[in-house]
Design goal:
The protein contains six helices and no strands. The chain is mostly helical. Helix 3 packs antiparallel against helix 4 and helix 4 crosses helix 5.
Length: 134
């Protein structure tokens, strides 16, 4: 399982309720596969339809088009840029080794390096102040 925020959990819970209502309306025409985002009758989405729906959502949201894989890269890069540790990001991506995550996303770490330099500088200043203070 992957931990998600409360807003995401609320949206997914509402989505599940909508799917359950659709299944009740369709009755025997609904085929349960336990999917989060099934086709209209519960069966797995066809890749062509999924891509069409995804592109429609991108256009409606008026955001730059990204491939599905780019979404994964963006997720990882933004987590790393925000200071989330490599182990947590690696776990979310289901990489078997942290080194895989590091190899792939090392380009996102310069911001983290700059942030760590500022943190260290602040710690040093506080330490020096505590040594000087009466």
């Amino acid at each position: 399982s992957v931990l998600v925020g409360s807003d995401t959990l609320r949206v997914l819970t509402e989505h599940r309720a909508d799917l359950e209502a659709r299944a009740r309306r369709l009755g025997s025409r609904w085929q349960e596969f336990g999917l989060v985002f099934p086709a209209s009758t519960g069966v797995p989405q066809s890749p062509r339809n999924l891509l069409r729906d995804y592109k429609a959502l991108i256009a409606k949201a008026e955001v730059p088009e990204l491939s599905f894989h780019d979404l994964r890269d963006t997720h990882a890069s933004r987590l790393l840029a925000a200071g989330v540790d490599i182990g947590t990001v690696s776990e979310r991506l289901r990489h078997s080794r942290k080194s895989t995550t590091l190899d792939r996303y090392v380009h996102t770490l310069p911001l983290s390096r700059r942030r760590s330099a500022v943190v260290m500088e602040n710690l040093q200043v506080k330490r020096c102040q505590s040594l000087i203070a009466p």
